[in-house]
Amino acid sequence: MPLITSPGPLRRQRGFLNPNIAKFIGLSILGLAIAGALLVVYALIFINPRLPSLDLITDYRPKVPLRIWSEDKVLLGEFGEEKRSLVKLDDIPADMKNAVLAIEDYRFYQHGGIDYIGIARALAADVLRGSASQGASTITMQVARNVFLTKEKTISRKLYEVLLANKIENALTKDQILEVYMNQIYLGQRAFGFAAAARTYFGKDLKDVTLAEAAMLAGLPKAPSAYNPIVNPKRAHIRQQYILQRMLDVGFITQAQYDQAAKEELKVRAPGSQYTVHAEYVNEMVRQMVYAQYKEDTYTQGFNVYTTVNAADQQAAYLAVRKGVMDYDRRHGYRGPEETVELPSNAEERAAAIDDVMDDHPDNDDILAAVVVAAGPKQIDAVLRSGDKITIKGDALRFVANALSEKAKKEVRIQPGSLVRVMQDAKQNWQIVQLPQVEAALVSVVPQDGSIRALVGGFDFTQNNFNHVTQAWRQPGSTFKPFIYSAALEKGFAPASIVNDAPVSYPAGPGQPNWEPKDDETPAGPMTVRTALQKSVNLVAIRTLDNIGVPYAKDFITATYGFDPDKVPPYLPMALGAGQTNPLQLSAAYSVFANGGYRIQPYLISRITDARGKELSKADPLVVGSGAPRVMAERNSYMMTNLLKSVAQRGTGARSNSIGRTDLAGKTGTTNEAFDGWFAGYQRTLATVVWMGYDQPKSLGGMEFGAQLALPIWTDYMAKALKGVPQFDQPVPDGIRFIDGEPYYDNFTPENGLVTNVGVTVVDAISNFFGWTPSQSPSSPAGGQPMPNAPGTQSGSPPPAPSSPGARAPNEASRRFLESTNQGH
Q1: Would you call 478 a catalytic residue per the annotation?
Q2: Given the DSSP bridges, would you call strands 66-69 and 304-307 parallel, antiparallel or unpaired?
Q3: Across the strands, what pairs with 439?
Q4: Contact between 363 and 437 (Cβ < 8 Å)
Q5: Is 280 a catalytic residue?
Q6: In the structure, what pLDDT confidence band is assigned to residue 816 with cuts at 50, 70 and 90?
Q7: What would the mean pLDDT of 751-755 be, rounded to a whole number?
Q8: Which of 70, 71, 78, 104 is catalytic?
Q9: 3-class secondary structure per residue, 658-678
Q10: Which parts of this chain are annotated as the region Disordered (predicted)?
Q11: pLDDT per position as a tens digit, 94-108
Q12: Of the candidates 754, 736, 510, which has an alpha carbon nearest to the alpha carbon of residue 634?
């Protein structure tokens, strides 16, 4: 039987696949073709008709926040859910565009919206890696997704994206598409678009970013949270370096540019420090005014509001107010820790306890929260929110020495677990401070047109958003006296007129005790109006008002200076500032002195534009010499400035001499029981008012006056605001005549109609001449009735200043009075 051998392996015919495999591949291709065709039919029939209109990008108007600027183009603040600044493509630096193209879509200008080469490359890379590691979305597809679609990963959404990308490519140019992308993409920290991101992360305009900064910004679109240079600086740096390498590989930069950018050290802004100027009260005022006109569009239409505020002056005002308040607070002692908690011995639990208590006590600018971990009479160790440990010792503990004593009350004692406030002094040494309870405000106005140069409505907006500049109606105290004397000038008074500083009593009403106003100093007898204003003497102001008549004075003051008639009482205490005003209104009133007698209206917004720069509105202020009404004779303004310069140089405002100018004028004010401290003053180019007090009125202290409370803030601010401003020497206007160095109206001179004295008898003059102090004086003649139960009001003056040229001493005043009586005046 023949052997049966098995056949050898079948020989495969060259050039042909196994029929089964070939059949499988053929069927697969056919299936894919059919599926593709069905997708195309589905897309054309069901998706294409439903594609959204391209109006959103052909007429691109994204949500852009309200943005507020200073007059010198410094960004003060923003309001809106999305931070975005619209920029044209031509205004975007080439490095910024190239960085984005290199990492997101370097073939952007070659493909038609769908980069098939890019898709193939991404698929190949994904197959090699065994995972979906590369995407293939073009910039056009990202625009379609970001503007119109969600980020869900479904086939239908991808089809929408592809079809929309094709539609966008047919409707817009490449440059238009890239411009939309650069303005629309989300980049973290509520920033949309690269212009907003440049300001958010680096605090600069997009046109000013460096190549290294552009590369870091370009890394954000992929994952804003993962590559955020504030939150994840290390990962952001790694991606930045990769983008720089990518720019080099595709030829967008040279090797030298790469080397320089790769080594550049970037300075990223800290959280919460986006704005370089503290203008929170200004921003809120602007927001309210814009909202009143534009309602909800305020936060989405990209309005740019240009204020009259000067950035440097605003920051100087903010710092001056904070320093003045902190100085006052330090004078009045330490009140104790804000809170004291138990600190566990376990390190992790202790750290958690510190974090918990910190959450309830946020930092306040440079005033930081700290938890004490060790305390003794000579040293305190504490931990900051950042986790950094600090040590406080030596003179820095003097302020809290009593709180470190074993005898300290529990609520005041500093011990481990106490939450305290710390800040660094000029030498970077840590010291314990406290958040103040007192408030202060400052407003500075240009007298020639009313533009507000600086406005600080309180110590800290986040702590108290009540705007004391516009909302706090308080008694002005002795800052009101100049308006009384201004009215008196029109009734024949002059700086050399003599008024008796002596006790006086006015009937108050049936069954009520007489009103007997007081001064801080012992009555000094007859003195000139100049001396009385320098020393802020109450009794002289009251006698002057009584002489000219309360109804006349009220009408003159309200009509001339713009005070609300219903807030100026028709009683003699008006002379002591018993009415009500606010710092903004008072600044406008003092502007009349400063500008030569014109009424101006303070204003804050100079113009408003839309997101593309089109002007929507523009201020039309009343300007001296062009629309501002004259409300007072120029000679009255000159005379009052002459008097108020005496106050600033030799009277209660003498601290202003520290600025080193002779063209400053102003007046201190302290209300009854020191509830309010004021200083209102001006130079020709700025009228500035400062106030200090408690929201719930209470005494600021028995030894506190406007000269100690408000004037230091005023001088700190004005010294910076007037730096470089030339000295102004006011020319003598028509209608003024000088006699013995004193100014007079030419129709009210010692020989013709001048009110030479008020309330002065021959006995008073002789007594004063020989240095005697009169014990009493007759009640004032009629001319005004005191306010029922009106309290005495403090003058707000420190010890009397020495006499000066033009400010006659009492004995000299008496001599002049005797001469006038012999002449029949």
Answers
A1: yes
A2: parallel
A3: 693
A4: no
A5: no
A6: very low
A7: 92
A8: 104
A9: HHCCCCCEEEEEECHHHCEEE
A10: 774-825
A11: 999 999 999 998 889
A12: 736
